[in-house]
Design goal:
With about 575 residues, this protein is mainly α. The chain is about 70% helix and about 0% strand. This is Fanconi anemia, complementation group I.
Length: about 575
């Protein structure tokens, strides 16, 4: 917009100012009109500026001036336009107190419907020019722009070029021009927020959304979460798919760039990474929280997200499983309505990806025809690794996902309760790979997230002691891996292991042997746990059930084989009595 007309606060009000203020106070419209007739543009601008900076009854004075300007006369129309333009400049200057700015904005909004169509068009054009020229500083004046566009749309006919357009068509041309223009990065958030209050058609909304999405690459990374929040609010008007796809594509590209930088040793050793990984992950985490919050308010947005991800994985199912997409879709499981739907989608996608990968590995023709697909396991475990950057909203869903994969694709019971599925020639089937992936998710999550360790251990032990009729070797293997990876850390959860000992006498012999072998490293570092186990085994020795006595003997044999029990001065009194 044009530079403000000079009109600083200056000394005490001049005689002309006092006359205008007196007429305004007395609600004397004719008196105000007479005062205005003797004023030039600069004097009027100076009067408004001084009153605004004083901060008293500015809105009342602006309203009085607008209503006193002669209607139907060119000088009156010019006067109103001057008032609007100057007030807009004052709002953008940042010199006004918040209360004064709100008062002035409210007054201008209420009076906008009194402006003729030509004036509204000229005022809207001033806004477009200001946005194109970088004249929008703090965005305060943009609160008025939706009112002007709405009033403009209701105009009957407006001159445009050599012809005439209806107000609605004129508004469409204006928005098209605006979205085709250059925007300063500093005003993008203000503009995205502003369009929430502008009545727009689907086509106009598409112009706006596409423009905002194109601006992502021009903004600093930390500026994206508030902008995306405004976009998600804007999605209530429509274009949900376009908004979600734009966000997903942008962050998938950022993840890809991050991976390429990490793989390029020269880049990582000699240059600073374009975007620090920690900063990118924190921004992604905040964006995901915004999306989940928006879905809670608008379930249609959640349905569109699932539909969008389903469509994206039709050709290449691994597209759904890249880090940002996985974190996003897992976070949506916190909304109960979508929980089962999301996990079913992920299960189907993972097994499909593993089958496709194995099929390609077994076909030389497909290997030559198609690029090698990304490793499903690597992509999902990348999500686990990235979750350390404050992605607490993903952690619980990762644990659920791990157990779902192990429960769904673990070995099935065959004759006499033995596992029916075995590897052929050392090659795992897709189901076996999915089960192993579930175990890897749980193991890595256990390693990097302390708050969830107790829950993972408890669920593993529960499955071991309650599924005596089903194959549980995959859970015993996971338990063994957890114990080996962090025996000292597990001491904090030793009570859960000791609770599991109470079930030993009721478990099949093979399960008892597998469980004791899995926790063997713990027994080496925890005397109290070893003592608790010996007490349970001694009790089982005198059980009336043969299987319980067999389990006790197996337990003592394992202890004798792996520990120096008798004669050890370091052993506790309970241990000495064996």
């Amino acid at each position: 917009m044009e530079p403000p007309l000079p009109g600083g606060p200056g000394p005490a009000p001049a005689q002309g100012d006092r006359e205008v203020l007196a007429c305004v106070g007395a609600e004397d419209r004719e008196g105000v009109r007479r005062c205005l007739e003797g004023m030039g543009e600069r004097e009027l601008a100076a009067l408004i500026t001084r009153q605004a900076l004083r901060g008293s009854n500015t809105g009342t004075m602006v309203r009085a001036i607008l209503r006193a300007s002669p209607g139907g006369r060119e000088d009156g129309t010019c006067q109103r336009l001057l008032v609007y333009r100057h007030c807009v400049q004052l709002l953008e200057s940042g010199d006004l107190q918040a209360e004064v700015a709100a008062d002035v904005t409210g007054t201008l909004m209420l009076e906008a419907h009194r402006l003729p169509g030509g004036t509204l068009a000229e005022l809207a054009g001033c806004y477009v020019d200001a946005i194109k020229g970088g004249g929008i500083a703090n965005g305060k004046s943009l609160e008025l722009f939706p009112t002007i566009l709405t009033a403009l749309a209701s105009a009957q006919s407006l001159a445009y070029g050599k012809g005439q357009l209806s107000g609605e068509e004129y508004k469409k041309q204006l928005i098209n021009t605006l979205c085709s223009s250059r925007w300063e990065p500093k005003c993008v958030i203000h503009l995205a927020s502003m369009f929430r209050d502008v009545p727009v058609s689907v086509e106009e909304l598409q112009f706006v959304v596409e423009k905002v999405l194109r601006m992502f690459s021009r903004l600093e990374l930390q500026e994206l979460p508030p902008l995306i929040y405004q976009l998600l609010l804007l999605s209530a008007k429509g274009c949900k798919k376009l908004i979600l796809e734009g966000i997903i594509i942008f962050f998938n590209k950022q993840d890809q760039l991050q991976r390429e930088e990490q793989m390029d040793t020269e880049s990582t050793e000699l240059e600073v990474a374009t975007v620090p990984q920690e900063q990118l992950r924190h921004v992604e985490g905040t964006v995901i929280l915004h999306i989940v919050f928006a879905i809670k308010l608008d379930h249609d947005l959640g349905r569109e997200l699932i539909k969008c991800l389903k469509a994206g994985q039709q050709g290449d199912s691994s597209r759904l499983l890249c880090s940002f997409n996985m974190a996003l879709i897992l976070s949506v499981t916190r909304i109960h309505r979508f929980e089962d739907q999301v996990f079913d989608l992920l299960k189907a996608t993972i097994i499909k990806s593993l089958k496709d990968s194995q099929f390609q590995q077994n076909s030389r023709f497909l290997q030559d025809l198609m690029p090698t697909p990304s490793s499903v396991s690597d992509m999902i475990l990348e999500t686990v690794a990235n979750s350390v950057f404050g992605w607490d909203h993903v952690t619980q869903a990762l644990v659920q996902m791990g157990f779902i994969l192990m429960d769904s694709f673990g070995p099935k019971a065959g004759p006499f309760g033995k596992a029916a599925e075995t590897s052929t020639n050392g090659i795992r089937s897709p189901s076996q790979q999915a089960c192993r992936l579930g175990a890897a998710i749980l193991l890595q999550t256990f390693k990097v997230h302390e708050p969830i360790r107790s829950e993972i251990l408890e669920q593993v032990l529960n499955r071991v002691v309650t599924r005596s009729t089903l194959p549980i070797n995959h859970y015993l293997d996971l338990l063994s891996d957890i114990v080996v990876s962090a025996p000292l850390i597990l001491l904090d959860s030793s009570s859960k292991v000791i609770e599991a000992f109470d079930h030993l006498s009721y478990l099949p012999l093979s399960t008892v042997q597998g469980l004791l072998k899995a926790i063997r490293p713990l027994l080496k570092v925890s005397m109290s746990m070893k003592d608790s186990l010996i007490l349970v085994l001694r009790k089982a020795m005198f059980s009336s059930h043969l299987d319980s006595r067999k389990s006790a003997v197996a337990g003592f044999l394992l202890l004798l084989k792996n520990f120096k029990v008798l004669g050890s001065l370091a052993s506790s009194q309970c241990t000495q009595s064996v």
